[in-house]
User: Fold this.
Amino acid sequence: MTAFLAGQRVAILLPLPLFGPLDYLVGDGQSLSAGDFVRVPLGPRQVIGVVWGGVTTINADIKCRPINEVLPLPPLPLISRQFVDWVAAYCLAPGGAVLKMVLSAPAALAPVKRPLPPPLTPDLDHPGVVLSPGQAAAADQLRERVGCGFSVSLLQGVTGSGKTEVYFEAIAATLARGEQALILLPEIALSAQLLARFTQRFGVPPVAWHSELTNSQRRNNWRAVASGRASVVVGARSALFLPFTRLGLIVVDEEHDGSFKQEEGVCYHARDMAVVRAQLAQRPIILASATPSLESLTNVAAGRYHLVRLPDRHGGATLPIIKLIDLRRDPPPRQRWISPPLQEAVQSCLAAGEQALLFLNRRGYAPLTLCGACGYRLQCPHCTAWLVDHRGQHRLQCHHCGYLSTRPNACPNCQAEGRFTPCGPGVERVAEEAAALFPEARLAVMASDLLIGPGAAANLVDRMANREIDILIGTQIVAKGHHFPLLTLVGVIDADLGLTGSDLRAAERTFQLLSQVAGRAGRAAHAGQVLLQSYQPEAKVIQALAGGDIEGFIAMETEDRRAGTWPPFGRLAALIVSARDATIADQATALLARRAPRDNKIELLGPAPAPLALLRGRHRRRFLLKSGKQVNLQAYIRHWLGSVKLPGQVRVQVDIDPYSFL
Assistant:
């Protein structure tokens, strides 16, 4: 490793939105190498950065400020630095912004007053659950790839097939080699149940990493990873950027989930970047899902990924029967949302001493509140969005910027008093209706805004397992990974909800979400059934769900995407231009449109107002670029943006491979 000595110039990358490192001078008595953490001056303040390498081009006329201090920390590993550079180049993001995700626990870089206790060591021989023959065969396939270089395995198993216990065996093989393992989850609410299952298998919990940790927990866990003392980490997408010293295996659970896509700041997809991280280290990665993404299935078909299947539920449990309720024939009463057939099914379920789940992927009490006198709709002042009525918390809220208000007594438009009416249902309104229909039942609502942290989710899961809840009403958070042995009925209030809009993945997402929520029913000894309420039961995705025809649905969706050269058979990139002033946003957008390079391999769509034309007080305009798979969209965008000088108040956010089109 090259050492940099006093008087030499070195490149230091700072965790700031800078596209490259800055030059500093190695001070007297200092000796450092690439990856070392240093404290350097930046204007009047001191900033911690990382030595990125030597300076390749030196302008002797430019004076460099000296490095103030070399911190007594393990250096940032080479692969972590390579990963930062790769993500920055691919996502067209400032390298310093990517580094900031690596240094996401600033307290970990400060001196520690006492030595920290190391995480407990997993016991590889601790008795866990007994695997079925199918699970054991799948585990053998995954174990064979540990220590054999880079590979991607897609672990596809029906809901309740025991995918977690299977990939635990690959983790055990990794730990036996003295390497670290990382499990990525789409939601921190899932972590509590997975931590319990991990403890059952290995005797101790893994190290956790997510936004709900305290500052001291983040400091301790970051240092445990950097020192190599953390054997296994379970975390949200940001855990991918932790400074692992010997990462031997990555597992991406629920790999299809859209929550792995970060939409703000550095726009990246954690599943895709996890594959890159594994390739840089030449180590295996496992993608696990009951309903894999079309991207992953396409990679299997092309021979790039290896498919490992678990076609049966564990312990002899059978998949639930799925039935359709045509709301055109069996509508609920006015201002109600539970149809008569679903009501009867819930009553039968409760009479049998079993549990029911009512699913609606919409938080709050009602998505819209309007004045019955003039039709005025309560809207967020900062976003192109309606305010959601959260009646239980006595507030109206924007789910995009977080704006809060109370419901006014008089209409701001016509001054009519007491005329505001909720429109449409959220889970709180469904819970209100269920309480009226089933007064003896014990109800609970499971939604992300009501469960603060994994502890709250774990408590609710325990209450379900202990039969303290008869009817659970929930949003998409209930669909992922939870095991409720006595839950035998799932009722989907609005199966059509995700099919509206112009999202090219709408059908795929609906199929995945409803398949996952259906999979909560009948996971143990009791048979399950699922009732889908729909106004368009003839839709291909609804028919595929009712028939359990995942192969047929994937074939249809694949053909539609291939015909339109949409991902994964083509490439997309989005540019969002925004400014506080609408006129400035329009002028900047027009300038970019005029300067767009001509390329017959790239289709430029727009500019047009983004669907959320106003977000957090900024007016937004959007370009969408579409091309074939082999086109280098990053080079095109880099050249395009480099040819235009925009006002300082204008922001341009680049999203390579966008998942959301808001």
